[in-house]
Specification:
heterodimer, A: alpha/beta, Rossmann fold, 4-stranded antiparallel beta sheet, 9 helices, 10 strands, B: 79% helix, flat
Chain lengths: 244, 228
């Protein structure tokens, strides 16, 4: 059963067409990596999937919702689709725990005490059970990003989207965030990862999609895609990224 | 130039001075908190509201910030009766003070709201929060915390500006001083004392309002306690 179904979507920013007819489908429990150069449209595609960008043509169905830009329908969709950003985007005036509790209390109408238990559980999942009362600026970048992952998890999403979540982190901190994502993959979460971490994509993603100039240029099971890229563009991209 | 300072006569006016002080305090607090509420509402409308209310708010804010408060008081007290709206001097100045402060606070809070990065709003809306919840829980708290200092400065300035209400015969601290000086001719003594009282009020207001800020904003409080 496909959890994400994208049909021939197009997205323009002014006269610039960023997505030029992209179709894909993602099965439940599948982990898909989106790779490609900056400007290839991979982040835009990801942002279209939870309605942060409005598509101009095509159709998206995700987590049992059809993409709609009606405010209430979009909110319902977003409850089931978690997204984690490159810049963490934690709320600076709230502690780690309060960041996580906000949406379950306001959106799902959980009681404070229920939400607190859930927030603690999610912090434990990302290995930050002891940082409930820390403010974001007291945490390292890697810890902030793991709190952001926990914040999304607390809504118990059907799908998780990751938008270059380690691009702002140094290698050591990158590892701890990737480990948290790998745990989620092991638990069967359906995920799409926009990433520049080629080795991680190969290890964790079931399938990798290489985007170029707003279209899917090549895709396949991660192992074979990385081992035997079919197109010369992907070969040269991988060569540059892996520094070989 | 010889002048004998005689502060003794002021003692006769002690009850009036206390009455005036009470009125100054009342007008100040009403202006500060009424203006704060009005200003926050206007700030929200001016960044997120539909076109028409937004235009109304813009015009209101520009009028308040570009005309002297004394003129605003005169328009409400002397001008409105021509339109059939007759307000007592006290009500007139109360309305003028709240409206005036609301205009200034609206601009300060608007700047605070606009300083919040759009990625915060994206994060909130991605979690399924409504626009209202996003404003209430994600945008406003850090926005207000950021502009707490200019809000306090504006509030203290407003407290000093309440002295203008004496122009329409309201007996606040300055109003009482005008009466006392015209009856005793100890002008210098009276206004010196009044000036000292305003200075004291200034410090008290600053401390009080900062304390309110520290009570309301947990993050500021923790930073403050961390420094102490």
């Amino acid at each position: 059963m496909s959890v994400i179904q994208v049909e021939n979507i197009r997205k323009r920013f002014g006269s610039l067409e960023v997505l030029k007819g992209v179709s894909m489908s993602v099965e439940a429990g599948e982990v898909v990596a989106l790779i490609g150069r900056s400007g290839s449209g991979k982040s835009t595609l990801l942002r279209c999937l939870n309605g942060l960008e409005m598509i101009d043509e095509g159709a998206i169905a995700i987590a049992g919702h059809r993409m709609s830009y009606n405010a209430a329908e979009l909110r319902a969709l977003r409850r089931d689709v978690g997204i984690v950003f490159q810049g963490y985007n934690l709320f600076p005036h709230l502690t780690a725990g309060e960041n996580i509790m906000l949406a379950p209390v306001q959106v799902k109408r959980l009681s404070k005490s229920e939400a607190r238990i859930e927030a603690q559980r999610c912090l434990d999942l990302v290995g930050l059970g002891d940082r409930f009362d820390s403010y974001p600026d007291m945490l390292s970048g890697g810890q902030q990003q793991r709190v952001a992952i926990a914040r999304s998890l607390a809504m118990q999403p059907v799908v998780m989207l990751f938008d270059e979540v380690t691009s702002a982190l140094d290698p050591e901190l990158t590892e701890e965030v990737l480990a948290a994502i790998e745990d989620l993959a092991a638990q069967g979460m359906t995920m799409i990862l926009v990433t520049h971490e080629m080795r991680f994509a190969r290890r964790v993603a079931d399938r990798t999609i290489y985007m170029r100039d707003g279209i899917i240029h090549e895709q396949g099971p991660s192992d074979s895609l990385f081992a035997e890229p079919q197109t010369s563009e992907l070969r040269s991209f991988l060569k540059a990224e892996l520094g070989q | 130039m010889e002048y004998n300072f005689q502060f003794g006569v002021l003692a006769n006016y002690l009850p009036e001075f206390f009455g005036g002080l009470g009125l100054t305090l009342f007008l100040s607090f009403a202006g500060i908190f009424g203006g704060l509420g009005l200003g926050i509402a206007c700030a929200i409308i001016s960044v997120r509201g539909p076109l028409f209310p937004r235009a109304v708010v813009r015009i209101y804010v520009e009028i308040m910030r570009n005309t002297p408060m004394l003129v605003q008081i005169f328009v409400i007290f002397f001008g409105l009766p021509s339109l059939g709206v007759r307000l007592s001097p006290f009500t007139s100045v109360l309305v003028a003070i709240v409206l005036n402060n609301g205009g200034y606070i609206a601009e300060i809070v608007r700047a605070g709201i606009e300083s919040i990065h759009p990625s915060q709003i994206e994060a909130a809306e991605s979690l399924g929060l409504t626009r209202g919840q996003t404003m209430r829980f994600v945008i406003l708290p850090p926005a207000l915390e950021r502009v707490m200092t200019p809000i306090i400065s504006q509030s203290v300035l407003l407290m000093l500006a309440t002295s203008l209400v004496s122009a329409v015969g309201v007996e606040d601290l300055t109003g009482v001083a005008m009466i006392a000086s015209s009856e005793t001719f100890r002008t210098m003594e009276i206004y010196l004392v009044i000036a000292v009282i305003y200075i004291c009020l200034n410090f008290i207001f600053r401390i009080l309002l900062n304390a309110v800020g520290l009570i309301v904003f947990k993050r500021s409080r923790q930073r403050f306690l961390g420094r102490v």
